[in-house]
Each structure stands twice: as structure tokens, then as C-alpha cells.
Amino acid sequence: MSRFQIIRHGLLVRGRARHFSSVSLADIDHFRTVLPPHAILTTLPTVATAPVAPAELDQYNRDWMGKYTGKATTVLKPRTTHEVSKIVKWCNEREIAVVPQGGNTGLVGGSVPLHDELILSLASMNNVRSFDPVSGILIADAGCILQSLTDYVAPYNHIMPIDLGAKGSCHIGGNVATNAGGLRLLRYGSLHGSVLGLEVVLPDGTVLDQLTSLRKDNTGYDLKQLFIGAEGTLGVITGVSLLTPPAPQASNNVILALPHFDNVQPLYRKVKRALSEILSAFEFIDRAAYDLAVKHGQGRALNPEDVEGAECFVLVETSGGRREHDEEKLTDLLAELLGAEKPLINTGVLSQSPAQFSSLWALREGVTEAVSKEGKAYKYDISIPLAHFKTVVDSTRKHLGVKGLLGDHAVKHVVGYGHVGDGNLHLNIVAAAYTDEIQDALEPFVYELVSSYRGSISAEHGIGAMKTHALHYSKDEVSIALMRKIKAIFDPRGIMNPGKVLE
Ligand SMILES: Cc1cc2nc3c(=O)[nH]c(=O)nc-3n(C[C@H](O)[C@H](O)[C@H](O)COP(=O)(O)OP(=O)(O)OC[C@H]3O[C@@H](n4cnc5c(N)ncnc54)[C@H](O)[C@@H]3O)c2cc1C
């Protein structure tokens, strides 16, 4: 593509600020010296490797939300770190831009190309390298699916320190690259703490081996931290060492229906005090989000009388060492809440079996899925003080109303849900279609609102392609300048996931 065309189509802003090479037949010939034929998916008309139909690359080119679509002609699926290194080295020399891809469940358009970058899928790097049942340290290939790692450590009575709705598809490498938060962050902290070491292929093909399994290592700069949350812009994560916690002996959950949002904060304080060390999740869904989850069959709906008059819901999970002890604490809490003179909750539904436990969780975890089934979602994943959660949802709805954009033809729902315990709200605007009108109404409106509370425009999903233009709402000039310098040190040719995180 010539520079003139790039400017004419307004594409210069992202990804093609530098002139990257497109993958050529000569490149495919080279990749054939590194990978077996079945690990090369290309639409290019090669003789030796049968070209695939463009539609076969759709699952790699299109993101989970159906919002971003790349034009990659080639997907490579290496099986070893050595193969990744050879591919990336070649791409660096040829100035071919590379998009590392895990399970492609990211929600900010970071995992798909913006143009015709090469997609490097880690899906075939999916072996557990080692697990030490004494320390709980797991070392795995980056392409291991989160659920399969959860299943792997379960017989040793361990769990993964991270859990999220996309666990059946997302990779541990993708989780680390996005610094995913999820449902267990309240209890086990962020991946910045659980990840002990990484193996990373740098953009020039060098393998940075920091795959340590040490709990303590204060030997200078902690380089691995830079790759946690870098969204594939600094290198390709090929191996992950992380600390898995012992599985709790007992887990319980309860869903609480609240008459008013204002009750969430005092409820959180009460729950923390009453459950202390066994509290493992405190998740929030507003009424609109609950109704969508039920509509799209996520979990089992609560009885109509239990949800009558509820403005929002909170899911509380406990994980502890003794079932009787935990159940007693939870039932005492419920009795106290329901018996209060001015109850903070209308009702509480306590799970009585593993099936009910999963069903209550499905109501919360299934909101993301339900939203995507209902329409096209504009997703804002923000950190703000809990007290302002409702204001942000209500103000956004009001703002869209003033702009005449509410209704089945445009914005169908404005919903809020998220990880209250972490101060993280998912504000989702569900529309009939993605349109410029809605986009312009939402931005910079939402970012300015978040900024007014000194919040973060991305609590856990990352920046990807979606929020590069808005980074300044959460990072000052000094920080952004340093980020650019770091990017230039690791990736002077800018081949790694261009147009993501930094414009
Ligand atoms: C239903 C659903 C629920 C979700 N719930 C949560 C949640 O609760 N909390 C949360 O934080 N997120 C959540 N997410 C989004 C979350 O970011 C991703 O699901 C997950 O962490 C991404 O992993 P992935 O393997 O799919 O990565 P991808 O989507 O493939 O990639 C994401 C980013 O990481 C980069 N990347 C991927 N693998 C590598 C690698 N090996 N080396 C370098 N870079 C790499 C990509 O280039 C891209 O920039 C959810 C998504 C869905 C669909």
C-alpha cells in the first residue's frame, strides 16, 4: 500500500505509521524451513503449501466482539520457543509486523491485526512444563488454555490464581499479556504478584529466559513486569511460571438482592467485617445486567419474588478451610442482614449444592456473553471509586437519551456490572449496531467522566487498539514518554503489535 493511499484512507494514524512489509511468497518459503506445512495457514497462492480460503482465517482476523477485523494473509502456529524465535527474527529483519495471538478473547481489539500483519498464534504451544505440588509453582507454555491449567492442578488440590468468563478459550500467555484481573483478584491479587517468571522472545528473536521459580529474587530490575500487561507490544511470551494457591476446602456463594445501589458500599463494609479471611469475591450486577443474563439463559433465574424491587445484585463468595465454619459465618451474616431494622438487602439466595453454586456464578460470569448476544457492545472497563458506579451508568444513559440515541434502533441498554471489591466497573452500552453517532456520543464523554473521578480508563482489559487515543486520560505525559522509550528499546523497528497500546 502506498503512502498516498494510506493517508487518503485515513489509516496513517495506526499501525502503518511505519512502512511494514506484507508477507510475501518468499517469506512463506522461509517459514516452511521453520514449521511443518500444517502450521502455516496462508491465503497466498503457494505451490508447496495449499492456500486456505480467506474465510478460514476469519477466526484469527476477527475479534471476539466482532468489532475489529484484520486482513492478515498468514497465520503461523509454532510449537516451540525456538520456532517462535526464528519466525520473529525473520520478521524483524524483513520488517513484517507481528500480532501475537492467544485465545483471541481480548475485549479491546488488541489480538487482531489492524492491517495485514502476520498473526503468530500460540495455540500449538500448549504443554505444561512442570508442576511442583509442594510449592504450587506451575511452569507452562504460553498457549495453555486457562481452563486446562485449572483442570491440571486440581488433582493436586491447587487452583489457578486467576479465573474469568473466557477461561475455556483464553490462554495463560494472553492473560499475562493483558494482565487480566477477573474473579479471583480480590483474594489472590494481580498477575504482577502471581507470575514468578516469564520466557519471552524479543522482537529481534533473542530469547529472554526469566522463567525462574523463585519466590524471592531482588537482583536488580524486575524485567518480567514490563511484559505483564504489555499486550504483545514488547515481545512474545512463550512460557509462564506462576504460583498457584492451594484449593480452598470449601466454597460457598450467595446472591443478594439490594433495593438501592446506595446500599452496596455499606454492605461491602459489613460483608468484609463479617467474613474477613474467607471472603473471596464480591461481584456486582445492576438490574439491567441481571435481566440480560437471565434473558440469554446464563445461570438460573432467581424466583420472581426474590428479585422484585431489586435495583442491583451482589454475589458474595467464600473460600475457606472448613465447610461448617464458613457456612455458619455466611448464614449468621445473612440473618444479621435480613434481621436489621433497615435491611440493606431484600433477600439472599444461598447455594445449597455444587450445581446451584455454578448457577449463581453463571448469572454473573454470563453477563459478558449475554451482552454480546443482545447486540453490539461498546465496552468501558473502568476503575472508579465504588460510590460513583451508579452515577457513571446513569449519567451515560441520560447523556445518550439527550442525544436521542436510546431505543431499539440505536442504544438498547446501558448496563453496569463488575468487580466491586476491586473498584472495577464494566460499563456496557448495548446497541443495535456499531455507529459513528453512538461512538461520538460516548467519547470523550465517558473518558472525561472517568477522569473527573481520577479513575482509570482501563481497569483490566488493556488498551489494545480501542483506547490508544484515550491513554492520556489515565497516564500523564511523562509516563507516556517513558512508555515510548521502553517500546523503542525493546522493539526499535516497531514490529510488535503496531497500533496497540501506543499510537
Ligand atoms: C466472556 C469474557 C469474559 C472476560 N472476563 C474478563 C475478566 O473478568 N477480567 C479480565 O481482565 N478480562 C476478561 N476478559 C478479557 C481478557 O483480556 C481475555 O479474555 C484474556 O485475558 C485474553 O487472553 P487471550 O489468550 O484470549 O488473549 P488474546 O485475546 O489472544 O490477546 C490479548 C492481547 O494479548 C496479546 N497476547 C496474547 N498472547 C500473547 C503472548 N503469548 N505473548 C505476547 N502477547 C500476547 C495479544 O497480542 C493481544 O494484545 C474476558 C473476555 C471474555 C470474552
UniProtKB/TrEMBL annotation:
<keyword id="KW-0274">FAD</keyword>
<keyword id="KW-0560">Oxidoreductase</keyword>
<dbReference type="InterPro" id="IPR006094">
    <property type="entry name" value="Oxid_FAD_bind_N"/>
</dbReference>
<dbReference type="GO" id="GO:0071949">
    <property type="term" value="F:FAD binding"/>
</dbReference>
<dbReference type="GO" id="GO:0005739">
    <property type="term" value="C:mitochondrion"/>
</dbReference>
<dbReference type="InterPro" id="IPR036318">
    <property type="entry name" value="FAD-bd_PCMH-like_sf"/>
</dbReference>
<protein>
    <submittedName>
        <fullName>FAD-binding domain-containing protein</fullName>
    </submittedName>
</protein>
<comment type="similarity">
    <text>Belongs to the FAD-binding oxidoreductase/transferase type 4 family.</text>
</comment>
<dbReference type="Pfam" id="PF01565">
    <property type="entry name" value="FAD_binding_4"/>
</dbReference>
<dbReference type="InterPro" id="IPR051264">
    <property type="entry name" value="FAD-oxidored/transferase_4"/>
</dbReference>
<dbReference type="InterPro" id="IPR004113">
    <property type="entry name" value="FAD-bd_oxidored_4_C"/>
</dbReference>
<feature type="domain" description="FAD-binding PCMH-type">
    <location>
        <begin position="68"/>
        <end position="247"/>
    </location>
</feature>
<dbReference type="GO" id="GO:0004458">
    <property type="term" value="F:D-lactate dehydrogenase (cytochrome) activity"/>
</dbReference>
<dbReference type="InterPro" id="IPR016167">
    <property type="entry name" value="FAD-bd_PCMH_sub1"/>
</dbReference>
<dbReference type="InterPro" id="IPR016166">
    <property type="entry name" value="FAD-bd_PCMH"/>
</dbReference>
<dbReference type="InterPro" id="IPR016171">
    <property type="entry name" value="Vanillyl_alc_oxidase_C-sub2"/>
</dbReference>
<dbReference type="Pfam" id="PF02913">
    <property type="entry name" value="FAD-oxidase_C"/>
</dbReference>
<dbReference type="InterPro" id="IPR016164">
    <property type="entry name" value="FAD-linked_Oxase-like_C"/>
</dbReference>
<dbReference type="InterPro" id="IPR016169">
    <property type="entry name" value="FAD-bd_PCMH_sub2"/>
</dbReference>
<keyword id="KW-0285">Flavoprotein</keyword>
